[in-house]
Specification:
The chain is about 35% helix and about 20% strand. With about 450 residues, the protein is of the alpha+beta class. The strands form five sheets. A seven-stranded mixed β-sheet has the order 5-6-15-12-17-10-9. It starts with 10 loop residues before the first strand and ends with a helix. About 35% of the residues are buried.
Length: about 450
């Protein structure tokens, strides 16, 4: 109830006489009202289901929503706008630095310096210098192949590849607006982007986004000296961040996504486009993408080192390629490159297991098929856009994995029968899977959530 009323976790600060009184409600309006009544802060009145503040002079009160509130940090700006809080550049910077420091205090894995990676740069220099010589991922120009050919040669067979020329052929504004950290900050410096997430201070509910303006995040990337810097991975491209969507368009090979069949299929992965940027040493640990999706990732600035391995779920295989266990999931992504990568590269085990390497450069788009393990390291400040999807041509190689979850497989096939009969006709084995079941699929919900 408190969450619905937008009060759980509020921090109210009375700035008169340079004093601050912070009050947090653990679960109810009445608790908050009682606490405020005990203080010398403003009067709190519960009016129906709303909370009102009374008897304060203009400029006397500031309201802020702290990092560990029960809502995303976007609500901070909404509250400040609602109560007409005005701040200068120095106050704005101080507020965001306080937010960052509070988040980092709760995230020790983002402050550790066990290996002093910022000081000992030889490993990073070696990755940069040997990248081109070790590239084993094919490259093709977008103009050299038709969409039908691409689907047949790469999507239907589940083969990763790098595509060049996408940003030029489709005239992306991001080619210039996102071509460097300086260019991006110049046009988007005030845009708030997610740099991490934290568990609510009361331990209940989903993790919550912590966002910083891009100009401050770029400064953080230049000045931090930790082994696991914060990495901007923004999936909420709405409100002020929606303008990023005008700067790019999906590569022509990836415009058809079966998760767009209806609202129920889309709900399997509602946030599927991600803006990504980060400084050197940031990246992702070895993982596969969710919900049977593959992905495309286009780089506009910087350089990314990728390692990919073919699909496989055997525990011994996952251990061999360095998939993090539950006990090591907070390990800095860069540590994989110091240990597992060196072992796999130098012993020849990587080649035996099908390891593919590449260094992605600006203007290049990598296609990662569903099920492929991959990890990424930013060799310098990098900016990219990526999207997850289920291309129709991928169903042939995916169906064996999908059919391991019969409830989802039947529901997905039935949904195709109604909304994409053209795709179902391309896959007779999938059509036969539901041939004796003429009942329609649930149009309102997906069984995937229950399976997940």
């Amino acid at each position: 109830e408190a969450r619905e009323r937008d009060v759980d976790g509020w921090s109210m600060m009375k700035t008169q006489h340079n004093t601050t009184h912070t009050h947090r409600a653990s679960s109810s309006l009445s608790y908050l009202a009682a606490e405020m009544a005990e203080s010398d802060g403003p009067t709190v009145v519960i009016d129906g289901e709303r909370l009102r503040l009374k008897a304060f002079e203009p400029g006397e009160l500031e309201m802020d929503l702290p990092v560990f509130s029960d809502s995303d940090s976007d609500d901070d700006e909404q509250l400040r706008s609602r109560f007409n809080v005005v701040e200068n550049a120095e106050q704005r910077a101080a507020r965001y630095r306080a937010r960052l420091n509070e988040a980092l205090a709760a995230l020790p894995h983002h402050t550790q310096k066990d290996k002093q990676l910022a000081l000992n740069q030889q490993w990073l220099v070696e990755l940069r210098e040997t990248g081109a010589a070790r590239d084993t991922l094919p490259r093709l120009d977008v103009s050299s192949i038709t969409c039908e050919q691409f689907n047949k040669e790469y999507v239907a067979t589940g083969k990763p590849v790098i595509i060049t020329g996408v940003t030029e052929s489709q005239s992306w504004p991001a080619r210039t607006l996102w071509q460097s950290a300086d260019a991006f900050v110049r046009d988007y410096g005030d845009m708030e982007l997610k740099v991490t997430e934290v568990v609510p201070f009361h331990g209940i509910g989903k993790p919550m986004a912590v966002r910083l303006p891009l100009d401050m995040y770029a400064e953080y990337c230049r000045t931090n000296d930790v082994d696991n810097p914060l990495y901007c991975f923004e999936r909420d491209l709405t409100e002020g961040r929606a303008r990023l969507l005008k700067d790019f368009s999906p590569p022509s090979f990836f415009c058809d996504d079966l998760l767009n069949m209806n609202t129920a299929t889309r709900s399997c992965l509602p946030e599927h486009k991600y803006f990504v940027c980060g400084g050197e040493r940031t990246g992702s640990s070895m993982h596969v993408d969710p919900v049977y999706t593959g992905a495309w990732n286009t780089l506009t600035a910087g350089a990314k080192k990728w390692v990919l391995f073919p699909p496989g779920n055997d525990p011994a295989y996952k251990a061999a390629i360095g998939v993090c266990s539950a006990a090591t999931k907070m390990t800095p992504p860069a540590y994989w490159w110091l240990s597992d990568y060196v072992r796999l590269r130098d012993s020849g085990e990587g080649a035996r297991l099908g390891m593919i390497e590449c260094t992605q450069l600006p203007g290049e788009t990598i296609f990662v098929p569903a099920g492929w393990w991959h990890c990424v390291l930013n060799l310098e400040f990098s900016i990219a856009i990526t999207q997850n999807l289920i291309p129709p041509a991928s169903l042939g190689v995916l169906w064996e994995e999908i059919s391991l979850v019969p409830a989802f497989a039947v529901w997905f096939a039935k949904t195709m029968r109604k909304h994409r009969p053209d795709v179902l006709a391309m896959h007779p084995a999938i059509a036969a899977y539901i041939a004796d079941d003429l009942t329609p699929a649930d149009e309102d919900s997906s069984p995937f959530a229950a399976h997940a």
